[in-house]
Structures are given as structure tokens and as C-alpha cells.
Design brief:
Cofactor: Zn(2+)
Number of helices: 7
Radius of gyration: 19 Å
Protein name: Aspartoacylase
Number of domains: 2
GO molecular function: hydrolase activity, acting on carbon-nitrogen (but not peptide) bonds, in linear amides; hydrolase activity, acting on ester bonds; metal ion binding
Order of helices and strands: EHHEHHHEEHEEHEEEEEE
CATH class of the largest domain: Alpha Beta
Shape: globular
Oligomer: single chain
Helix content: 25-40%
CATH architecture of the largest domain: 3-Layer(aba) Sandwich
CATH topology of the largest domain: Aminopeptidase
Strand content: 15-25%
InterPro entries: AspA/AstE_fam (IPR050178), Aspartoacylase (IPR016708), AstE_AspA_cat (IPR055438), Aste_AspA_hybrid_dom (IPR007036)
CATH superfamily of the largest domain: Zn peptidases
Strand order of the largest sheet: 2-1-3-6-4-5-7
Keywords: Hydrolase, Metal-binding, Zinc
Length: about 290
């Protein structure tokens, strides 16, 4: 059982669009992938209808084992998460869903990024397959570059929707504004999904493809917060992302180089707290304001 989900964040339209296209092609998909049962999940319809990221709380932060076990949580997303986990789970190695592929978009210049967690070797092999075949000649030129990102955590700790299944994979594509469809972002999302499904069909049919000897990945190390807000009501951050860093997701940033520009024009340097050289991602993501 392979669950393809979208609309986890209601104002990320691409995943919902791709789900609708998958539903139109359900018979074709079943014929092409006889070893897996592909189903779709529209994760947060009320948030999508309201054109909001979420109703009460971020749905994609509700799926850690501790949060799912919390009986006092009363938000809409807390209840929705429990319903999704009941259908796909129970969360962990015994989950009814073997794989969940959750589709997202970002306002940051991330290209097409496959995000997997360190606990799932199958997800990492699937990402390696996508990386190997991203530039295949039998496909049109890829609209956006492909990268692989690894989050180091246990499945119990992982809070994302995809972590409910035995193996979770996230597709993150950008840049694109919230509440908007772009053909290149849709194309990259569908290309990545198509390759992931091709890998899963090979894997579950017993024809496991060769795994490359090496795979370039970016490992999540931590977060750097914005400078505290400059205006009285706190709606604005206290600094903007430095011009030299904006749109340079995955490019190296060295300690001492400009990170932010404050209201008075002074530059705030990266302090090296996460390493002498890092590769920032989700730079200036609108959802994090």
C-alpha cells in the first residue's frame, strides 16, 4: 500500500492538483504498477478550502508518537492527524501503509528536493534512484535541479505526516508563491513522483535496481531564527535575508559571511554555530514568518 498525499498545507496547491491528475489516471497507474496499491490522500481539505496553511496548527507537525498519543490536544489538525494515523498506521514498522509520499511546495529556491529520514533505508534508496535517473534521456529536460536532504531522527520522533507509514518520503519543490500553480513546479513534482513510483514497483516486484556507490545528500543540522521584529506589533522580522544569500539555497555559507541585513542597514553575519561552512535551505520561506 503506497499512499500519495497532498494538501497537507492548505495553501500549497501543487500537491492537490497532482492528486486530481492521479485520480484521473488511476486505471493506468494500476496497470503500470501491479506490485503496489497506489492510493491518494487529500490531507487537509478545510485548510485548502480556506486558502490557509492550516486551520489551528500545522498538520505536518502533529505526527510524532508523543503528539499522536496526546489525548488533550483539541485543535482540528490534532484530530485530523489521529484520523490519518488510524487509517495508515499504527505509526511505525507495523503500519498498514508501506510507504507515504507527501507532496509540498516552498517559496524558497529549493528546486526539487527529496526529503527522507535517516531511519528508512528504503526511502534513501528510493531517493538515490530518483537522483540517478533525474536527467534520463527518455524524459524531457528537468525543469528544476534535484537534491536529496536527510533528516536524522527516529521514526518515533518524526512529526511529519509521511512518517506514519513504514517508510516516508517528502517531495519539496520551489520557488513558487503560496496559493498558486506553476507548470514547472507541477512538472518537477510529477517527475519526482513518477520516478519514486517506478522505484517502488521495482522494489516490491523483486527487481531491486542497483544502488549507486555514493549519493550526495544534505543533512539537516538545525535552524537559524530571524532577528526579533523591528515593528511594534511584531509582524515583521527585525532584518531581511542578506541580498548575497537570498535565493542561494544549498550554496555554501561560511562563518562571518552576511546572513541578515538589519533595519539600519548593518549586516548580521553567520556566527558559525552550526559549523564553519553550512548550506542553508528554505531561505526566506514565507510560511516561517
Amino acid at each position: 500500500r503506497v499512499v500519495v498525499s497532498g494538501g497537507t498545507h492548505g495553501n500549497e496547491y501543487t500537491g492537490v492538483w497532482v492528486l486530481q491528475r492521479l485520480q484521473l489516471r488511476s486505471a493506468e497507474l494500476a496497470e503500470q504498477h501491479p506490485s503496489i496499491a497506489i492510493e491518494t490522500l487529500f490531507a487537509n481539505p478545510p485548510a485548502h478550502a480556506a486558502n490557509r496553511r492550516f486551520i489551528d496548527d500545522d498538520l505536518n507537525r502533529q505526527f510524532s508518537a508523543a503528539t499522536l498519543a496526546d489525548t488533550t490536544a483539541s485543535s482540528f489538525e490534532a484530530g485530523r492527524a489521529k484520523a490519518i494515523a488510524a487509517d495508515m498506521g499504527p505509526k511505525g514498522a507495523a503500519a498498514d501503509a508501506a510507504v507515504c509520499i507527501d507532496m509540498h511546495t516552498t517559496t524558497a529556491n529549493m528546486g526539487c528536493t527529496v526529503i527522507v529520514s535517516s531511519y528508512s533505508t528504503l526511502a534513501l534508496r528510493a531517493a538515490a534512484f530518483v537522483h540517478t535517473h533525474w536527467d534520463d534521456a527518455d524524459e524531457a529536460s528537468p525543469p528544476l535541479p534535484l537534491r536529496v536532504m536527510v533528516e536524522e531522527c527516529s521514526q518515533c520522533e518524526a512529526a511529519h505526516l509521511a512518517s506514519v507509514a513504514r517508510h516516508g518520503i517528502e517531495i519539496e519543490v520551489g520557488p513558487t508563491p503560496q496559493s498558486l500553480l506553476r507548470a514547472d513546479v507541477v512538472a518537477s513534482t510529477e517527475r519526482c513522483l513518477r520516478l519514486l513510483l517506478r522505484y517502488l514497483e521495482l522494489h516490491y516486484s523483486g527487481a531491486e535496481p542497483a544502488t549507486p556507490a555514493t549519493l550526495p545528500v544534505y543533512v539537516s543540522l538545525g535552524k537559524v531564527p530571524f532577528v526579533d521584529g523591528a515593528d511594534a506589533d511584531g509582524a515583521l522580522p527585525g532584518a531581511v535575508v542578506a541580498a548575497s544569500l537570498q535565493d542561494r539555497d544549498f550554496a555554501p555559507l561560511r562563518a562571518g559571511e552576511a546572513l541578515f541585513e538589519a533595519l539600519d542597514g548593518s549586516l548580521v553575519p553567520y556566527d558559525g554555530s552550526l559549523g564553519e561552512v553550512v548550506h542553508p535551505v528554505f531561505i526566506n520561506e514565507a510560511a516561517y514568518y
